[in-house]
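Case study 2.
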Amino acid sequence: MFDAVLKVTLRIGFLFQVQDDYLDCFGEPEATGKVGTDIQDAKCTWLIVQALRKVSEPQRKILEENCGVKSNNAANRVKEVYSELKLEQRFKEFEREAYQQSANLIKEMPLGLPKNTFFDILDTIYRRKK
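Prediction:
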């Protein structure tokens, strides 16, 4: 039972963290209640990892020159690269896939575990805006 719960909670937790990375960059401050600074702080986010897997040399140069720079202009240059790489679309695909994988893991949990509780948590965070 422990292993089943661990698998589900790690998968849901990973989805939540990726959403947090996405919302820090692309979320509406009015909805999230914060202005994201992950790019300016040079955090190792899901977005930068995805970008580094796909970038051209000129795009890599833009990322290297602008990540970690405390400037809205620099952050916007990074976001332009993210847009060129279609990371917003990739995030939406990831979110759908992660939801389905999590739901499948919950369905496979042994009897006696509160599956509805796990589904409630998953449904609460799916497509969240803050």
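The domain at 2-125 is CATH 1.10.600.10 (Farnesyl Diphosphate Synthase).
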